[in-house]
Amino acid sequence: MAVAALEKESAEMASAANPHKPAVSIKGLDVTFGGGEGAVTALSGISVDIPQGSLVTMLGPSGCGKSTLLRAIADLVPASAGEIAVLGRTPEQARKERNFSFVFQDSTLLPWRSAIDNVRLPLEVGGGGKAHAEPEALLELVGLKGREKALPAELSGGMRQRVSIARALVTKPKILLMDEPFGALDEITRDKLNEELLRIWQETGTTVMFVTHSIPEAAFLGQYVLVLASHPGRVKEFMPIDLPYPRKLKLRDTIEFVRITAHLRQLLEEC
Amino acid sequence: MADATVQTVARAPRQPSRRWPAIEDKLPSIIAAIGLVALWQLIVWGFSVPTYMAPGPLDVINAFHENAATLWNNFWPTLFEAALGFVFGNLVAILLAILFVYSGTAERAFYPIAVFINTIPIIAVAPILVLIFGNGYLPKVIIAALICFFPTLVNMVRGLKAVQPATLELMRVLSASGSEVFWKVRIQSSLPFLFAALKIASTTCVIGAIVAEWIGSNYGLGALIIEATYNFRSPLLYATVFVAALLAVSLFVIVSVAEKKLIRWKSQEVH
After folding, report:
1. Whose CA, among A201, A227, B72, B126, lies 20 to 30 Å from A129?
2. pTM for this prediction
3. Which residue range is the domain that position B31 belongs to?
């Protein structure tokens, strides 16, 4: 019931925004670390539009700057040149208005707070934001009903990452930025959370940008896969994945899926 | 990096409660203690050790009975000095640690001085302070404070800095203010480190007060130890030492109980 309410509200939120305007629009983005001769160009001339409500996975060899791109959108890394517009605003404005949430590879839960109190954290700091969902309903959404009082140390790695996803959703973000959130989990847990992420994405209508280094994960989740090449990080291809949702795990055994992953692997080898 | 939370945090193991778990666990140490006291009495009797050289347990118990008022009257000043020294020494250390964490300049300026002060033997500082501040409570409180100061400073600085970079990034994405990061993250993460230091300080502050009383005082357990030694009142000397130990143990227990009440989670980095 709580989930249904969430779904309805986010549907209203989505229709209120201009559907033609991209959620994230990047034009000629450069990110350089350091200065002088030791400067390292992490990203060079990135231009891409992320449609509203889409699920975009970002794939590339390590060192291609996919995490850096996500961090630049999240205002964690400054742009050296070019523009990033998050719902038409600068990353800093978008951060202060709580337009996006960030899920880290490590769950980054505060170990002294129970699951439910960790989910409440975003409402207690930084002004709390305007909109918020019920923390209890979110823990139910991520399948942790009954574990509200548990401390992070009492939860498994997968459960901790579920809590951190619930925490990211508590501010009802229009955009969810996820930096290899399931990278540290075992494959079985990872598969399960992949399916659940798709369900949550469809229930909430949030735009999701998902960094991964796993080809099957990128293809299974993504409406689009943004393939990045390295040295310096640049866009290789922005590829739509023409597979219908809802997607189930067995989709990965179909010939269409294998064709897509083969193509992605081919692209990565050229990087 | 992958599973950092698992490494830093572990729940304290809880034994399932048996019928008399407390007594059963402590039985070996109780038997050992009674055995040693009995052995002590047997040696004193067997070798006819003169009382002024080493009194037996029965002599000491007798001394407790005869000098109850003297012990009681000298107990309070020492408790007062130790407790006040504990509070001030730790308070200054905590405030200085906070300053160090927020100002690298202050840390570079004062940390070497703090290390230098720590290397001076407390027994050498005591006469200097007695010369400056006279025979009253003040030099004793200062010495008790001084002995608490350093371990707390070092641990508190470590604790305040023991915040994972990803947690600070999370707080930035949430647009948390500096004071929110301090109160909701840094202070909480420092508590296990702080209490590790406070447990050390709870016993050393008693040592500080007693050493200070040796140098120049007419009251307190330290003065009583000196007086009893010079007058060959060995049973009283032993009784005084027991009272001093009892005082230190009581303070330790108080700090341990406070720790258990305040910290439900355990940080393994402390050990």
Report:
1. A201
2. 0.81
3. 21-50
Average confidence (pLDDT) over A230-241: 90
Is some CB atom of chain B closer than 8 A to the CB atom of A149? no
Structure tokens at A106: 């490590």
Q: Which of A104, A106, A122 sits opposite B174 (nearest CB)?
A: A122
Peptide bond into A152 cis (omega under 30): no
Smallest Cβ distance to B173: which of A102, A110, A160? A102
Chain-centroid distance of CA A180 in Å reads: 8
Question: pLDDT digits over A49-65, tens only?
Answer: 999 999 999 999 888 88
Which of the following CATH numbers is that of domain A2-270: 3.40.50.300, 3.90.1580.10, 3.40.50.920, 3.90.1150.10? 3.40.50.300
Is B2 contained in some domain? no
Q: What is the mean pLDDT of chain A?
A: 88
Which has more confidence, A267 or A231?
A267
Within 8 A of B3 by CB-CB distance, chain A residues are: 106, 157, 184
Between strands A224-229 and A81-86, the pairing is: unpaired
Q: What is the pLDDT of residues B24-56, one digit of tens each?
A: 888 999 999 999 999 999 999 999 888 888 899
Chain A CB contacts of B10 below 8 Å: 153
pLDDT band (50, 70, 90) for residue B18: low
Each residue of A231-265: b (16+ CB within 10 Å) or e? ebbbbbeebebeeeeebeeeebeeeebeebbebbe
Q: Does A211 score more than 80 pLDDT?
A: yes
Per-residue pLDDT of A22-53, as tens digits, reads: 999 999 999 999 877 888 889 999 999 999 99
Cβ-nearest to B175 among A124, A126, A183:
A126
Instruction: Indicate if B44 and B61 belong to the same structural domain.
Output: no
| Long-range contacts of the stretch A250-255 (C-beta < 8 A, 24+) | A251/A220, A252/A216, A252/A220
